[in-house]
Amino acid sequence: MPQSEYDLVIIGSGLAGYTLAREFRKLDTTARLLIISRDDGVFYSKPMLSNALAGNKTPDQLVMKPVEKMREELAADIWLETDITSIDSQAHQLVSSQGEVKYGQLVLGLGAAPRQLPLQGEAADQVISVNDLTAYRTFRQQLEGKQQITVIGPGLVGCEFANDLLRSGHQVQVVGPDSYPLSLLLPEAIGQRMQKVLAEKGFEWYLARTVDRIDRQDGGLKLTLSDATELQSDFVLSAAGLVPNIELAQAAGLKVNRGIEVDRRLATSAPDIYALGDCAEVDGLWLPYVMPIMNAARALAKTLASEPTDLVYPPMPVVVKTPDFPLVISPPPKAAGDGQWQIESDDSGLRALFVGTDERLLGFVLTEEKVKEKQSLTKQLPNVLDSAPSP
Ligand SMILES: Cc1cc2nc3c(=O)[nH]c(=O)nc-3n(C[C@H](O)[C@H](O)[C@H](O)COP(=O)(O)OP(=O)(O)OC[C@H]3O[C@@H](n4cnc5c(N)ncnc54)[C@H](O)[C@@H]3O)c2cc1C
């Protein structure tokens, strides 16, 4: 088997892998850099997958840069459709489907995979999840000519897809065990308002229940829910959450929890192996969003270029792409401790402030016209993660 040798190897060509490579190249133009990816390596904006329909964007229009351009800009070798079989952290070596690679430093940007639901029924395999551009192409092809769409999962991504489908002329049903949308991120009063406003726009909600079976019926699909409700549907999209890709790290003996465990230097438990993005849990925090990746990539690039740097997460509000219910969320950090939501509402929307026992603002949620207050409130928030080293 051929053996190659690189100073830095990055596994993954998603936002995490490519942003890190770009930041690293700003600091080091000569290191031998290899990016290995399981997919086709095109650079695209994943957040756009859940609002491309109404914006009339085809999957091809979501491609920001082809892989040839990435190779040139990053002065990197990029191996595509390549799987990693194993990592030997002591020998600083990995085995891939294209051969063995010796690395100086290794970065895991492996992302996360859609949660698979335990569905019964002859058509259970018809369900599709969209977490990359390839799956999005399939989604768009299969959506052709379909009218009644069921989205499983009333979380952030599920609600975004449902709103996009609604705005592009489909009928949408949203099903999930939560008692209100975005229940992991929103206080109940806001979730209920979101549910009400989106119902007025056309969302059909089937909350506090799960999909148990999917069968074929009359050329379409019949969904049976846990409370025996039956729904007719033409197409089912599952957005039931993501599970970080930790298997490769686990098999290599690295410490994992929900994600691959890293400290504030993005270092795993093995020497010279780092992780960032949706696969990584930074000092106990798993934040599968764009802003944490951008901040992590900048800090890690410096560390890899011989300037050890602790990651600092500033406040990073998430703008939810539900245009029929504008929403911005800056969840209180888990370590924030005690506090409570103070919620005010008027005709222009809701403002929920999470205030700590010392009266400091720790998080917020803004809806509708109140989203305009995002910047001024963000300035008042503390960092999500400060540079103090992990205990
Ligand atoms: C529909 C949708 C909308 C979103 N909208 C927003 C938003 O509005 N705002 C926001 O902040 N966040 C949003 N997010 C989240 C954000 O897009 C992700 O956090 C981010 O794109 C994750 O990037 P990543 O590089 O960590 O993972 P990925 O993009 O999943 O990349 C992982 C890479 O690893 C490769 N890989 C995995 N395993 C292996 C292996 N064994 N060998 C080789 N290669 C491997 C894959 O091929 C891929 O290239 C959204 C997510 C989705 C799904």
UniProtKB/TrEMBL annotation:
Q: What is its main location?
A: cytoplasm
> One GO molecular function term?
oxidoreductase activity
A Pfam match: Rbx_binding
Its GO CC terms? cytoplasm
As cofactor, the record names: FAD
Domain named FAD/NAD(P)-binding: which ranges? 6-287
Which parts of the sequence belong to the Rubredoxin binding domain?
311-381
What subcellular locations does the record give? Cytoplasm
The alphabetical list of record keywords is: Cytoplasm, FAD, Flavoprotein, NAD, Oxidoreductase
Family statement drawn from the similarity comment of this UniProt entry: Belongs to the FAD-dependent oxidoreductase family.
Q: This chain belongs to which protein, by name?
A: Rubredoxin-NAD+ reductase
